[in-house]
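[#protein-structures] MJ: dropping Nitrate reductase here for a structure pass
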Amino acid sequence: MAMLSAMTAAATMFPGILFADEQEKGLPDGDINWTKAPCRFCGVGCGVLVGTENGKAVAVKGDPKSTVNKGLLCVKGYHQIMCLQAKDRLTHALVKKNGTYVQTPIQEALDLVASKMKETIEKHGKDAVAMYTSGQSTIPEGYVASKFMKGAIGTNNLDCNARLCMASAVTGFLTSFGADEPMGCYEDIDHADVFVLWGNNMAEMHPVLFSRMLEQKNRRGAKIIDFATRTTRTSMAADKSILFKPQSDLAVANAICYEIIKNGWVNTSFVEKHCSFNKGLTNMGYGLEDNYKFKDKPEKIDFKAYKKFLEDYTPEKVEKISGVSVKDIKYMAAYFGDPNKKVVSYWCMGINQHTRGTWMNNLVYNIHLLTGKISQPGNGPFSLTGQPSACGTAREVGTFTHKLPKGVVTNEKHRRLAAKIWKVPYERIPSKPTYHATEMFRAVDRGEIKFIWTQVTNPLVSLPKTSRYRPGMEKDSCFVVVSDVFPTPTSDVADVILPASWHIEKSGLYGNSERRTQHWDKMVEGPGETTPDAWMTIEVAKRMGFGDLFPYSEENHVEEIYNEYRQFHEGDKHGMAPLEVLKSQPGAIWPYVNGKSTQWRFNAKYDPACSNNEDFHFYGKPDGRAVIWQRPYEPAPEEPDNEYPFWLNTGRVIEHWHTGSMTRRIPVLHKAMPNAYVELHPKDAERLQIKNGDKVKLITRRGEIIMPASVNQRGIPTPLQVFVPFFDENMLINDLTLDSFCPISKEPDYKKCAVRVEKV
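AK: finished. C-alpha cells for Nitrate reductase:
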C-alpha cells in the first residue's frame, strides 16, 4: 500500500496517468461484472479489469493485482472500450464489385479469399501470396498464421508490423546473447539506482512504467537520465537531460565504453569468464537497394583489439560528432562504472528505428557487459515494446519471415520440430526467408506478390515512404484482403474487407515486454458477423484443403492452439505457463519452470536453465558467453543539406496509439489531440517567422505535407530538427519518410531524413 501510494503521488507529476480514486469516480452505477485482461494498447501489458453489464462493456479500471501497473492506468488504457461505440465499426464483410463495396455474408467472403489465394498459387506459385500480420495479433492468431503460411502453403511470405518497431531489438539480443528478449523484468525498477533512457520518451510512450520510476525517484532518490534528440515531458521530469545529434548515439555509446576501460571500471572477472569479442559487418548499405547482399563477414577479436578500436571514440572526439559535452559523456560513464550503483537502460523506437539499430542495441549491451551490470535485480539492459504482443506473438510465436514458433527457418533442427508438431512433411517448410515487411510491399509494388492479406494492422499509414507503396496496393494485379475492426486507409484499397473481433469480443493471449504471458476470456459478443482473426485464417485454410492441419473447434480454438504451441517451448529455457495458471492470475513470466516465473535469465541464482556451474551462463550462445561487439559510428543515409536543411523525426503522443485507428475513435482522446502537428525549435520558428498554430509545409525528396506548427508546446526539438506524430491519417507524415532500414534487422528508420520547412 505504501508503494501504491508513492506511485499515485508520482503519477500526479505529469498528465496522462489515472490512479485508483480517479478511476472509481468515473465508473457507472449498476451490477457490473469485472473480468481481467491485459490492456489492448502498448507493450507494457498493464492489467485491466473490464466491467460488463447486460452484455455490453461499460467500464475499465486498473487491476490492483497486476504487478505490472498495480492498478494505475494511462488515459488510453482507461478509455479503451469507448472505441467500440464508433458508428463506423466494420460489422459485415465487404467485397468490392465494379468499384463499389457490397455487404457480403462472411462465409461467402471467406470462400472468395480462399479461392483467390488458391488461384494465385496455381497461376504464379506459392511465393506470389503473402500475409502481413501484427504485434497486436494474439498468440493464437500469430500461431495459426505461421502454421498456415509456412506449414500448409509452404511459403515464408509472412511478416508483421513488429518488423517496423522491434526487429532491431530481436537481432540485438540474438547477436549479443543468442536468445531474444530482455533478461530482466519490471521489478528492476524497484531496485535500480539509475535509469538511463536512450532516446525514449517514456513519460508519453510508457507512462505507467515511467510513473513507477518517478516513485523510486521520489521515495529513495533514484536518478533518471534522459538521453534524447528533443526535449519532452520525460526530459522535464528527469534529473538530467542530455541532447545529442541524430545518429550520433552510436558514437556516444562507444565513448562511454572508452571511459569505462580507461578508468579501470571494467568488471574484469565477469568479462573474462562470460564474454567474447567480435568485429561486426560494416559494408552493408542502408536498405535502400532492393535485395541488398552483405559484402563481408564478422570475425573474432580480443579485448586488446577492441580497446584499440575505442581510441577513435574519446569524449573529446565524440563531442564534435554528437554535440554532447565531454562532461556529460563522463557523467553517464561514471554511473555505469560505479560498482555501487545499479543501472537499468531503457529504450524503444529511438534505438530500434535506426539504420544501425542492431548496432545500437549491441552497444548498450556492451556497456552493461563491460561493467557486469546485467541479469541482476536493478542491473540490466531492457528493450521496451510498443505493441501488446510484439513479444508474445511476433517474437515468440514467430510471425517474421525468418522465424518459426521456435527458432528460425534456416535451421534444419527447428524446421524438423515444426514439421513434427504441425504434422506436415519437413520438406514443405522453406529453408530461406523471403520478404521482410518493407521488401514485402516493395514486392507488391514490383508486381511479384499478387495476393496479400493484412490482419490487425494499417500499413498504408505506418509503412515508411507510404507514397511508394499505396499505388502498388491499388493495382488490379494484386488482390488485397484486409481484416480489421474499423475502416482505415489500408482497407480503402482492399478487394475484400473482413470484419474482425476486437480484443474483448474473443478470448486470447498477449506477451508483454517483460516476457509476461497474459490470458483473457471473451467478455461480450461482437456486432454483426465480426469474427476472430485466428478463426478466419482457419476457415480459409480449411477451404484450401488444409482442414486436417487445423482440427480446432470454434468454441475452444484458443485453448487448443495455445496447448499445441506450448510444445515448441518445453524446457527450462523457454517453458510457457499452463493455461490454467494464466487464467488464475494476471500472467506469468517465461521461462515458467516448476510452477515459478524466471524473473532474471542467465543468472544461476534465479534461472534454472543455467548449467555451467558459474554465477552466469549465457546459454543462448554455444560457448555460453555473451558477445561484446565492435560497432563503429556511421552517418545516416540521408542528412540535412542546403536544399533540405532540417532533420525530420516522427513518433507518438500520449493520447494516441500508433496509426490512431482506435484512439481517434475515442471522443475524449480525439478532443484532447484532434490532429497532428510539427514541432519546431523556437529559434527556427522565429527565423522563419512561424508562430504557434501557423500552417507549415514540410517537403522531402518523397513528398510534401501541410500541417500546423507547434512552438514551445509539449515538445521542443533541437535546432534544425522537426518532430511530427504519425497518428493522423489526414496528415500522412510517413509519405515523406525514407524507407532506409537496418540491413541486419530490416527495421526502418523513421527518425532521420532530410526535410525543408516553409511557412504557408
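MJ: nice. The first helix runs from residue 2 to 11.
AK: one more thing. The chain has four domains: 2-78, 93-161+388-551, 167-384+624-630, 646-759.
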